[in-house]
Amino acid sequence: MKLSTNVNLRREPFHINYRKTSESQQWEVFHFHQAMELLYVYEGTGTAIVGHRMLPIEPGTLLLFQPFQLHRLVVSDRFVRTVLMFDPHAVEAYIQPFGRIRHLFQSLWKSGLQQQSFRHPKLGPELEEAFDRLVRHLSTVPYDKQADEYGLLLLSCLHSLSAYDRRLEAKELPKRMPHHIEAVILWLEDHYKEKLSLEQLAADLHLSPYYVSHSFTQITGSSITDYMLGRRIKEACRLLETTSLTISAIALDIGFSNPSYFCKLFKQYVGVTPLKFREQARRV
């Protein structure tokens, strides 16, 4: 299993991972990224977990994840997908002339969505053709001109969504995430290897501990403690894949003073021991 790509939006406002394939079980911890993400499934079945919601994964499904939205995937067997990650600010110029599509995009970006999984007999073929066309064109277009190709692709995807899912034409939806929750997540990203101090987190952000804890769980669907643990496990996976550090050294590096307890939690989350995970990762 390879961990999700972390995209630097300042350097790379658009990034595509085209027809990425995993032959064995695909498992991820809860994670987030600054980018907006579209994930289209060609092969594979499983579940996408977004907050408290479980979305089915099956061929022909398009999943949408908003910026800073915690999510994870659990997929068995062969998993083939295209992942497009992008800076939503970079898309606005391309859709500005199209009022209905602009309104749809703003909702998908900033609203508290009830629908983040899309499937229609005509939607899948259109998306596959659009991704194929993008990849063909990218191979012939200079790098500094490629943003136009991505803009056209996203305009096409949004047009297809608006045509085949009338639920997206609903009334105005509430805004999804106050800015301070993003600040909480960024603080946690800087301190996840340390012993969690809710009081310090709240003091640094000038918020009350209760408000931080309650609003984080309400908006993300995960407690701060669960998020911190998931983030540590994700870092452990990265170190197991990319370094030769011992299991004990990795446990200490990510904030566990007891390596045995780390191994127990790792197996509980990932399904295999850290050593087994490393062996499997090196066979891929």
Treating each run of at least 4 consecutive H or I residues as one helix, how many helices? 11
| Rg estimate, integer Å | 20 Å
Overall, the morphology is globular
Runs in which pLDDT lies below 50 for 5 or more consecutive residues are 1-5
Distance between the termini: 8 Å
Question: How is the main sheet built?
Answer: 7 strands, antiparallel
Helix and strand pattern? EEEEEEHHEHHHHHHHHH
Helix content: 40-55%
Number of strands: 7
Strand coverage percent? 15-25%
How would you classify the helix and strand content by structural class? alpha+beta
What is the typical, i.e. mean, pLDDT? 86
Describe this structure in words.
The N terminus is likely disordered. With 284 residues, the protein is α+β, with helices and mostly antiparallel strands. Helix 1 crosses helix 4 and helix 9 packs across helix 10. Strands 1, 2, 3, 4, 5, 6 and 7 form a seven-stranded antiparallel sheet that branches. The protein contains eleven helices and seven strands.
Task: Summarize the model shown.
With 284 residues, the protein is an alpha+beta fold.
What distinguishing features does this structure have?
284 residues, alpha+beta, seven-stranded antiparallel sheet, 11 helices, disordered N terminus
Secondary structure blueprint with pairings:
Layout: E1 14-22, E2 26-27, E3 36-50, E4 53-57, E5 62-65, E6 71-86, H1 88-95, H2 99-110, E7 117-118, H3 123-138, H4 146-164, H5 179-191, H6 198-205, H7 209-220, H8 224-242, H9 247-253, H10 259-270, H11 274-283
Antiparallel strand pairs: 1-6, 2-6, 3-4, 3-5, 3-6, 5-7
Helix pairs in contact: 1-4, 3-4, 8-11, 9-10
